[in-house]
Design a protein that fits this description.
Protein name (chain A): ABC transporter permease
CATH topology of the largest domain in chain A: MetI-like fold
Keywords (chain A): Cell membrane, Membrane, Transmembrane, Transmembrane helix, Transport
Shape of chain A: flat
Structural class of chain B: alpha/beta
Distance between the termini of chain B: 45 Å
Mean pLDDT of chain B: 86
Pfam families (chain A): BPD_transp_1 (PF00528)
CATH class of the largest domain in chain A: Mainly Alpha
Structural class of chain A: mainly alpha
Helix content of chain B: 40-55%
Oligomer: heterodimer
Low-confidence stretches of chain B: 1-29
Subcellular location (chain A): Cell membrane
Radius of gyration of chain B: 23 Å
Mean pLDDT of chain A: 86
Number of domains of chain A: 2
Shape of chain B: globular
Number of strands of chain B: 15
Membrane topology (chain A): Multi-pass membrane protein
CATH architecture of the largest domain in chain A: Orthogonal Bundle
């Protein structure tokens, strides 16, 4: 008898446990967690591990070298100087955010052909980065599309070696990057603006507010979070610019960004350890900047009243 | 500008590379030849970089092979980004039965991935280009065909400038380019800066000194960019060409594919390449309606003992995978491909087997009194040069520092020839001291 009751009890308990598992949130989170850990945290862990070794990516053995790789990243001018190139892209990202914000505001009101314009603005972001690189390579060629266009406009004497002149090359590349990523900022802003209830504009209009007043007092505060997010993304994005300079100039002519340098260190010079240290440094810098920004721009509640 | 995925991508790639590194498996066998016993039968897979031939010429060779050895089956796998992709694949342990050796694999790692084919002593009577595949006396791969190094030129344009014989010194060569610039509309020299790899051709002329020990002496030298030394001779000529504005106006927008019709039709007069480029340029000439006979091949303008020397190199190496399940057939295919398939003749390459004749284009080249020299690989300092390259990040075999040099020469980056070469010497010296200690 006792045996049977124990068995029955344990069966009930097992059922309960099973139900518990089924009701546990972990079961539902598991697929996402497994993917996240396998494809994000394990590689990052590996990368940190490599960064303390000297390894060519092939050899069976890795030589531990302690902090040598990090010392080299910070002391050898060749590695930290490439960070300066990010400034071009950082400055350009202000233009990018301003353009995106302007169009998002204009197109959130009833403008003629506004869906067409939305499509046109978002289109570059959908293009493959490699394709963008090739398109702009032709655009910037001597006597290419840009030069021809300028000549038609009577600006013939202002044509340049857009990529060949080192003073201009980075600006050309940053311009390409603005062209490509404005669409993303635009869509983020547009979505945020459209989440502001329409009655508020109506009330504002009755109070005699013009478009500028509406932007200044309704839209800008309403999408402040998105704007601040855009700046965080702009900083981390400009530190990790890769495909546009990589495809268009291969990092030559003073356009080598930090990630292009890391790529060359890893795959051209097979110094996986050193390149991992560079990647870790980049990761830490991005984390630090995000944290600072959060400290100085606290994420307070938006209120439109 | 939002590009966090790049970082993750690098991490994931590195992770892949890691798993590969762990499964590579070290070799400890001491036999000079791999075990190729067994019947020549069954299927093998061949990895190749020649994606252009994978559906055309290569299956024809396979058909001949299958007729010679009934019961065999050869499948090809064309890999576009060969060096990077196959290097990653190597660590997975599964990389076909026969494959081209990817460039990033260092010579001392060959035994981890490839089956030894024999000792250099045994094979050198039969094959050229063994040294780049030999480590500690054992040969791990065979060249599939060799090329000579020199300038591909448009004969018609040079003749218009009044020059019909190859210049004998760098100064004469520069004067020749200046004459081309003055007397024709052609761009005298085309760097192919943007694609990068053609700049690496400037590293392949060590034979001009006629010194068989050069590859051993090179890593022993703490400052190779000193006047009179080989690195100075080569890089200096490129620097001077660009500095005298004898190269294309905007190097950043060059394009390899479009450079072929340009030299074929005479818009460009000169490019430094290998003899493999001659048939390609001639094809481009035919396609553009120009005369293929305009394309000629000249040696590097430097003479030792009153004679031109031109480097010849095994272009790509082919090896048998250590993890192959069918090594007998793999070896048989490799032998057949190198000796009997006719691949090197079809490609106008120098045949790897010593007893086969030179291609027609190169016969003309040697007829002008150029001696073809195969520079032996380093023995006592074997592998040291690669280590210094990695450590100093001066890619002698690649385009990165030469692009910078072109920038300096055309006034787009700070410095002049002396300061640039001094900087190279200093960086090289630092790494060299570490590697050679």
């Amino acid at each position: 008898m006792t045996g049977r009751t124990t068995a029955a009890r344990s069966a009930i308990e097992a059922g309960r446990a099973r139900r518990k598992i089924l009701h546990s949130p972990w079961l539902y989170v598991a697929p996402a967690l497994i993917l996240l850990i396998t494809f994000t945290y394990v590689p990052v862990g590996n990368m940190i591990w490599y960064s303390f070794h000297k390894w060519d990516g092939l050899d069976v053995t890795m030589d531990p070298v302690g902090l040598d790789n990090y010392v080299r990243v910070f002391t050898d001018e060749q590695y930290w100087r490439v960070f300066l190139i990010s400034l071009y892209y950082f400055v350009a990202s202000f233009a990018q955010i301003a353009i995106a914000l302007y169009f998002a505001v204009v197109l959130s009101f009833n403008t003629r052909f506004r869906n067409l314009f939305k499509g046109i603005l978002f289109f570059p972001y959908l293009l493959n980065g490699v394709a963008v690189g090739f398109v702009f390579l032709y655009l910037f060629q001597p006597d290419g599309t840009l030069d021809t266009l300028m000549r038609v406009l009577g600006l013939g004497e202002h044509t340049q070696l857009w990529l060949g002149d080192p003073d201009i090359a980075n600006i050309s590349l940053a311009g390409t990057s603005v062209w490509r990523f404005t669409g993303l900022n635009f869509v983020l802003f547009l979505g945020a603006i459209q989440s502001i209830p329409g009655e508020i504009y109506e009330a504002a209009e009755i109070d005699g507010a013009n478009r500028w007043h509406q932007f200044r007092h309704i839209i800008a505060p309403g999408i402040r979070r998105i704007i601040s997010l855009s700046f965080i993304l702009a900083i981390s994005g400009s530190l990790s610019v890769f495909e546009i300079p990589f495809i268009m100039t291969g990092g030559a002519n003073g356009t080598r960004t930090f990630v292009v340098q890391a790529y060359q260190t890893a795959f051209q010079f097979r110094q996986i350890g050193l390149a991992s240290a560079m990647a870790v440094v980049l990761l830490l810098i991005v984390l630090l900047i995000t944290w600072l920004q959060r400290r100085f721009l606290p994420d307070d509640e938006v209120s439109l009243s | 500008m939002i590009n966090r995925r790049t970082l993750l991508g690098l991490g994931a790639l590195t992770a892949l590379a890691l798993t590969a590194g762990c499964t590579g498996g070290a070799s400890d066998d001491t036999a000079s030849t791999g075990d190729f016993s067994g019947d020549i039968k069954g299927a093998i897979t061949v990895l190749t970089n020649r994606t252009d031939l994978v559906n055309t010429t290569l299956p024809e060779y396979a058909k001949k092979f299958e007729a010679k050895y009934p019961g065999t089956k050869v499948t090809f796998q064309g890999v576009t980004n060969y060096d990077d992709d196959v290097t990653t694949q190597l660590s997975s342990g599964d990389y076909g039965d026969v494959l081209m050796v990817p460039n990033p694999v260092a010579i001392d790692q060959y035994s981890q991935f490839f089956e030894p084919l024999g000792t250099q002593e045994e094979l050198k009577a039969k094959y050229r280009f063994l040294s780049p595949a030999t480590y500690e006396g054992k040969v791990y791969a065979l060249s599939v065909g060799g090329v000579a190094k020199g300038f591909v030129i448009n004969k018609r344009i040079w003749a218009q400038a009044g020059i019909t014989a190859p210049p004998k010194t760098p100064e004469e060569f520069l004067a020749g380019l200046k004459a081309v610039d003055a007397k024709t509309d052609a761009v005298p020299y085309y760097t192919n800066y943007k694609d990068g790899w053609p700049l690496a051709e400037w590293n392949t002329h060590r034979a001009i000194l006629g010194d068989p020990a050069i590859n051993d002496k090179f890593p022993a030298d703490p400052s190779p960019w000193q006047p009179g030394k080989i690195q100075y001779i080569e890089d200096s000529l490129l620097f001077d060409i660009v500095h005298a504005k004898l190269s294309e106006k905007d190097p950043l927008t060059t394009n390899w594919e479009s450079s072929k019709p340009m030299i074929a039709t005479g818009k460009v007069a000169t490019m430094l390449l290998g003899s493999w480029a001659v048939p390609q340029m001639q094809d481009a000439a035919k396609a553009a309606g120009a005369d293929p006979a305009d394309i000629a091949f000249w040696p590097f303008p430097y003479q030792t003992g009153g004679k031109f020397h031109a480097n010849i190199d095994g272009d790509k190496l082919a090896a048998v995978s250590k993890n192959s399940k069918n090594k007998a057939t793999a070896k048989a295919w490799l032998d057949f491909f190198v000796n009997e398939s006719g691949f090197s003749t079809d490609q106008q390459a120098i045949p790897p087997a010593i007893d086969q004749p030179l291609p027609k284009g190169l016969q003309e080249f040697t007829a002008t009194g150029v001696e073809l020299v195969e520079t032996p690989a380093a023995t006592t300092n074997s592998g040291k040069e690669d280590e210094i390259i990695k450590e100093s990040e001066i890619d002698l075999k690649g385009p990165i520092y030469r692009q910078k040099m072109v920038d300096v020469a055309r006034g787009a980056a700070k410095g002049d020839k002396d300061s640039f070469f001094a900087d190279l010497n200093q960086r090289w010296n630092k790494a060299q001291a570490q590697v050679m200690k």
